[in-house]
């Protein structure tokens, strides 16, 4: 409560909490999680995860709580909570091509953007899908901004090309990644405090995670700022 300035014990789904510094965190196993995908996400190995958790076989169960290694300044948990201090609006911006951290303005828990994002938490991921029952990464981003009155292109590559670069990250900026090569193939929405929301193929659902995780730092390709003029551009796509 002291770390987060809380006045009551109540917390809300999707709320981002600062955690005490530590060498280990926890991860709650979600549908689609494997030791291999978790090892990539947390920058470790399958063998180390098995050792930390006393596992004799690689099988996992949904809801199982795992101990995971935590890089300095990062806390692991379901939803990607981070133990970093809140960002300062006065922090110097990094080169937009460098892996992002907790930069720019702090998030506003009452913002329409965050409220729209939280309505999608847990919606299943499916490549090429674009509905309230399932969606992919770019559809999630487009649907959230459609609720805010902004029309965005359909695919992550088109979104990356259509929007202006964002130097210092601010809540609402789109963060882009490349997991399959040099071209952009994944997108999420930066929320502040070093975390972003995205429809994750590894988590098989819409989640909130830390941008500081080594898995995302390695794949990060830059950020783009959503502007109202984007509503004048519409693109089709699968």
Summed up:
The protein has 238 residues and is of the alpha+beta class. The chain is 20% helix and 16% strand. It has a domain at 88-238: endopeptidase domain like (from Nostoc punctiforme) (endopeptidase fold (from Nostoc punctiforme)), CATH 3.90.1720.10.
| Corresponding CATH architecture of the domain at 88-238 | Alpha-Beta Complex
The computed structural class is: alpha+beta
Strand arrangement in the largest pleated sheet:
6-5-4-3-7
Per CATH, the class of the domain at 88-238 reads Alpha Beta
Give the helix level as a range of percent.
10-25%
The description of the largest β-sheet is: 5 strands, antiparallel
The 3D shape can be described as: globular
Radius of gyration: 17 Å
Structure description:
The chain is globular, with a radius of gyration of 17 Å. The protein has helices spanning 35-41, 46-53, 112-120, 137-147, 156-162, 214-219, and strands at 24-28, 65-69, 174-177, 186-192, 195-200, 205-210, 220-224. A hairpin with a 2-residue loop joins strand 4 and strand 5. The N and C termini lie far apart (45 Å). It has a domain at 88-238: endopeptidase domain like (from Nostoc punctiforme) (endopeptidase fold (from Nostoc punctiforme), Alpha-Beta Complex), CATH 3.90.1720.10. The chain contains six helices and seven strands; from the N terminus they run E-H-H-E-H-H-H-E-E-E-E-H-E. Mean pLDDT is 77; it is low at 72-104 and 230-238. The protein is an alpha+beta fold. The longest helix has 11 residues, at 137-147.
């Amino acid at each position: 409560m002291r770390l987060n300035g809380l006045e009551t014990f109540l917390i809300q789904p999707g709320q981002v909490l600062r955690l005490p510094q530590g060498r280990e965190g926890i991860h709650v196993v979600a549908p689609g999680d494997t030791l291999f995908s978790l090892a990539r996400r947390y920058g470790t190995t399958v063998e180390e995860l098995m050792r930390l958790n006393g596992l004799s076989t690689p099988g996992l169960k949904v809801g199982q709580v795992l101990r995971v290694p935590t890089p300095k300044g990062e806390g692991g948990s379901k939803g990607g909570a981070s133990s970093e201090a809140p960002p300062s609006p006065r922090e110097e911006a990094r080169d937009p091509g460098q892996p992002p951290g907790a930069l720019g303005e702090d998030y506003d828990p009452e913002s329409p953007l965050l409220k729209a994002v939280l309505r999608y938490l847990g919606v299943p991921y499916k490549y090429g899908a674009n509905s309230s029952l399932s969606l992919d990464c770019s559809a999630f981003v487009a649907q959230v901004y459609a609720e805010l009155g902004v029309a965005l292109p359909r695919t992550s590559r088109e979104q990356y090309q259509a929007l202006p670069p964002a130097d210092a990250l601010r809540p609402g900026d789109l963060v882009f990644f490349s997991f399959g090569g040099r071209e952009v193939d994944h997108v999420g929405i930066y929320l502040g405090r070093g975390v972003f929301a995205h429809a994750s193929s590894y988590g098989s659902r819409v989640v909130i995670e830390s941008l500081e995780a080594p898995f995302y730092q390695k794949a990060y390709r830059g950020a783009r700022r959503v502007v109202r003029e984007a509503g004048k551009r519409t693109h089709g796509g699968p």
